[in-house]
């Protein structure tokens, strides 16, 4: 399986533009999931890319240019964990 570079993008959106921005974000290549959330940000986007160069195309070249997006903050993902993987690791004694 090919290695991917993942990022989580926290997005602030202008008032009244959340639904339109969210829909536009789902159409960007590399965007895997878009969540509307409560709190300091309006949307959280999960991005998967083949490398850091592709992230540049997706985030500042795509996400940040969506109408209504006023600010983005990107969190680079180093390791993904799931309940199934963690359970298997503990079964092997990897603690």
UniProtKB/TrEMBL annotation:
Entry superkingdom: Bacteria
Gene3D superfamilies linked: 3.30.70.920
Segments forming domain Transcription regulator AsnC/Lrp ligand binding: 9-79
Coiled-coil intervals, chain numbering: none
UniProt protein name: Lrp/AsnC family transcriptional regulator
